[in-house]
Structures are given as structure tokens and as C-alpha cells.
Amino acid sequence: MKIKQWIKVCMATTAILTLAACSSTHKPTGSDVNMANANSGATSSGMGSESGFGDQASNGQLSKRVYYFDFDSNIVHEDDKPAIVANANYLLGHPGAKALLEGHTDPRGSREYNIGLGERRAKAVAEIMIARGVKPTQLRIISYGAEKLAAAGRTEGDYQQDRRSVIVYLQS
Amino acid sequence: MRKIISLAIFALTLILPYSASAILSMELTRGVAGAIPIAVVPFAQSGSAEQDVSQIVTNDLQNSGRFNVFGKSALNQFPSDASGVSADYFRHLGTDNVVVGKVDSLGGGRYQVSFQLLDMFKGAANVGVVLTKKYAVSGGELRDVAHHISDLIYQQITGTPGIFSTKIAYVVVQGTNPSRYLLEVSDQDGYNPRPLLNSGEPIMSPAWSPNRRQIAYVSFENRQASIYVQDVASGARRQVSQYPGINGAPAWSPDGRKLALVLSKSGSPNIYVMDLASRKLTTITNDSYINTEPAWSPDGRALLFTSSRGGNSHPQIYQYSFGSGSITRLSYDGDYNARASYTRDGKYVVMIHRVSGMFYIALLNLDSGTTQVLSSSTADSASPSIAPNGSMVLYDTVYGGHNELAMVSADGRIQLRLPSRNGEAQDPAWSPL
After folding, report:
1. Do B269 and A119 touch (CB under 8 A)?
2. Which of A137, B53, B69, B422 could form a disulfide with B23 if both were Cys (CB 3.0 to 4.6 A apart)?
3. How far apart are CA B400 and CA B402, in angstroms?
4. From A151, which residue of chain B is nearest by alpha-carbon distance?
5. Which residues span the domain enclosing A29?
6. Average pLDDT over residues B53-72
7. Are residues A48 and A130 in the same domain?
8. What's the CATH code of the domain at A163?
9. Pick from B148, B223, B269: which is nearest to A1 by CB?
């Protein structure tokens, strides 16, 4: 590298520092706005007390919105289906409501491949809901792969917590 | 490879000039005998400088694994130019290559840095001057000039360009529930980390444009995966892809005009190529398998990608040829191969490789089809990224319960770690030269 080029690199470096500093203070980007959302529990089990759902038939199933999966599997456990159906029924009764279906994997393997695996888990939940008549427009699927782990550790028990799909109701 | 006894001949912790901001530093965890001997004589210094230029050169050359450096502690003669060098002294020490130099204060925070690379067996007086250079720089530029000097020495002696002035991009995750995600760029030795994005939602898969001016990455801000292209110098960015579902794994074409990427708008993750000027998409795969992690061949005529099309839901590496439109399976060893990229000569593929449930960085020889494991196990995962001169592979690994960055030489003999000081470091990408 010639010295002129090199000086340019240095100037660019300085510019990065300056601008990075500026952008963090002046630009309320989507990320910053989203911070509030993230704090409200993108990885937790949903709306909690604010939801006020009055579905008497659900027997508490409606509040169960995290479903776990076996290793390398996107097959929904039989005992999770009543809760998924209860949430489907809620969406059927509230056509204006929208739900985000998150798919997650454990941290093993390639990050981007895990994005693909996580999407399949979210889709498996979506398919059950759509089969019950929920409009696809009420659902949005997002795969976080292994980027939002439920458990920080690396034991098989932690991995079981990580492999999940989560229903998050969106405020419209 | 795993059976090689770790030599650990050299471990250093760099003294950080501003440790609050520097989150990474290098430690050589496994070295090798048989490297090229070179003496780096501490540079004569008038006044005090912010950076020890000759120490940075020493660290660079030592960490490359290609050199056995005689530094300050190994020397008792400290010449600062060719005229003061005793060829006999350095020959007796066992090195023909000697670096001398000085840093002179010019006042006003500026310095003149001069150095010479000498060969003890060349020239009339038995001390040949191979390189001689002089630079006038500010104090803040001393690290960069030191890396530049290392590049010149490395190229002169090995014939391969040095990578000491390159950058790395990576993601730092801080805290849990909620986490903060930062996209950072630092020097290749982990110094001077600078944030490009700070988000409450995940950031993934940074990818450098071939001219090193832009980085494409995936951001989940607003709970939607999107691909952005951000200007490294100005910080200005634009969203280039936000289709429903997955928007992932961006990869720049060698001419910098296109991005290969992954979208699941068809219902499954498939590979597309986007023309960046028109945003027009070309479909590369169109099926219901998982297809991801496209990587361009150096000549731009082929794409590597990871796919589950082989069955068992286990990913393998495939190659798509733009000329014929055909897809060929490349990897057969191991039940899980992913995240492939070509070496610069296009003869090898670097990838994640699983053996008996453990993940490794491996090199696939495209001529012979053989797979060579480079690293010791990387625990859960890894995101290998090859250095622009092909000498090293950067990846993330778990060390002491934390995600951090590490490097392994392309021959597997050298391993380095860049301990994270500020959170979990992951998903690294090595810049072009």
C-alpha cells in the first residue's frame, strides 16, 4: 500500500469513529426503537397480564405459548397441540389480532443453517393454526435460529430450552 | 491434526493503550518450530511515542506463525540503521533477516518512522539493504504504520501479501434477556474496535464488499430479518432486502455488483442473486430443502452453498455453476458440513465439519476430495472466514464458557485466540486486502 492510500485509510478510520459516535447520539434508528420491544420480551412467552383474553374454553392453554422440539426435529409434540389450537381459536375470534411465530434452535451447527431449521419449527406451528382456519395474514413467521438462546449454558438441558417455537401477540 | 502436541511456544498479552475500548487481543495458543528467523531490533526513539512500533511489528510477524522473531529480550545489540549493524552478531544469533529503524518526534504530535529490512548475506559489506522506507505520521497513525511495515516485510520475505493492515468485522452480544447486539470492525489483531450498529435485536453474517468500503449484514430490528448494506466510513446504510421470512447470508460477488442471499419467500430457504443496482433477483435454487450460505468462487462463475438436499436433514456442501446451471455435491466426509467458502486460489473449500458430534474447521481439497481438519474442536458452532491472503482462517469458538474469535493457519499448525473483553464475540468476517 502506498502512503497516500494508507493516509486515506487512516482518514476513513477517523471518520468511522466520528460518525459512529454521532449516529449513536443523534439517530433514533429502528434498532433503538426496537430496544423497547426487545425489553418487553421477544423471547419470553408473550403478553402476560396485559392480554386480557377472556377465552373460558381454553383452560389455561391460551397462555401456553412456548413449544419445545426434539433435536433436529420440527415435529410439534402432541401435548402442545391443545395450546396451539387454543391460540388459533383466539385468532379466529379476533380477526384483527396478529401473532408473530418465532422459531429457535439450539446453538449447535452453522448459524445460517439454524435460521432455516428454526423457520421450519415456526411453520409447523403455523400449519396447525392455518388448518384450524386462521388466516395466514394474521400470522407472521420469524426464525431467530440460535441467535436468541433461552438458556446460556451448553448442556443438553439448556439445548432443550433453546429448541422452541414461541407465539408472540403483536399490538396493532 | 488434533494429536499434534500443542507447542504453545509463545503467548503474549498485548498491553492495551485504551483497554476500555479494546475488546480483543491476540494470544498465540499453538505455534510451530521451523519458522523463518528474523530479528526485529527495538526502534530507536526520540521522545515518547504513543505506540511501540517495533513491538507491534514483532507481534505481527510472530503471530503470523511464519516467523521466529528475535525481539528485545533476545538481543544485546540495538543498531538503528544498516551502518551500525554487525553482520557477524546476527549471523551468530542465527538470523539473516534483520529489521532496524527509528521513530523521531517531529513535534506537534507527529513522528517520522523509518525502517530498513537487512539481509546479512547480501551486499558488498555483507549487510544488504533489502527495503528502506520513511513515513511522517501522527501519533494516532503509528499502529497503522507499524502494520504497514509488517506487511512489507512479510511480502518481501514470503512472497505473499501480508494481512496485518486488514480489518475484521464481527458481532458482539452483551448481556442476556435482553441482549444488546453490536456489529463491530477492528484491526485484524483485535485493536481499535469501532461499532457500526448497536441493536436490541440480533445481527448476523457480516460480509465485506470486495473494495472493503461496505459491509452487508442481516439485522432483526423491528422483528423482521432484513439485509442492509452499510458504508464503513460514513456509517450510512440502506436496506436492500426485506422479503417475508428469511433474509439471510449475504455474499458479495467478486465484482461487487451483486449479492447472493437467502430468501424463504417461496416457502423454503432458497438461494438468489440480487443485482444491487436494480434489486432484480435471479433464482439459483428453487426447492423445499434448506439452501443457505452462498459463497462465490474467486472467478465469480460458481457459488458454493449449504443444503439439506442430500437427505437425513444433514447439510452438505454443493456447488452451483452459473454456466451450466448444474448443482454438484462437493462434501462427503462427515455427516454435517456447512458454511463453506473458497480459498483465494479456488482449489480448497474451508467449512464447518462435524465428526462424532463435535464441530471443527476443515479444509476440503477440491482436486482429491479429501477433508483435512484444521482446528481443535470449536464446540457448538463456528463461522469460518478465510484471510484475504489465504494464510489463516478466522472463526468463532467457545472458550471458558464464552464465545470468542480464534484463528488457525491454513496448514493447521498455528492457532491464535482473540479473547473477548466486552461480551460474546461471534460470526466474524475477514476484510479483503
Report:
1. yes
2. B422
3. 6
4. B176
5. 3-36
6. 92
7. yes
8. 3.30.1330.60
9. B148
Render pLDDT for B202-211 as a digit per residue (tens, 0 to 9): 999 999 999 9
Cell digits for B28?
498465540
Of the residues B114, B220, B360, B402, the best mutation for testing chain A's interface (the one with the most A CB atoms within 10 Å of its CB) is B220
How far is Cα B81 from Cα A75, in angstroms, rounded to an integer?
71
CA-to-CA separations, A14 to A18, A20, A21, B163, B403, in angstroms, rounded: 6, 10, 11, 21, 29
* B352–A112 C-beta distance less than 8 A: no
pLDDT value for B122: 64
Residues A63 and A86 in one domain: yes
Question: Got the DSSP string for B397-413?
Answer: EEETTEEEEEEEETTS-
CA-based nearest distance A19→chain B, Å: 6
Under DSSP, the state recorded for B259 is E
**Beta-strand (E) ranges in A43-147?**
66-68, 98-104, 139-145
Position B401 scores a pLDDT of 81
Within the 50-109 window of chain A, which residues sit less than 8 Å (CB to CB) from chain B? 72, 100, 106-109
Check: CB of residue B40 under 8 Å from CB of residue B99: yes
Most confident of A10-19, A27-36, A39-48, B126-135: B126-135
Do A104 and A166 belong together in one domain? Answer: yes
Domain count for chain A, please give it.
2
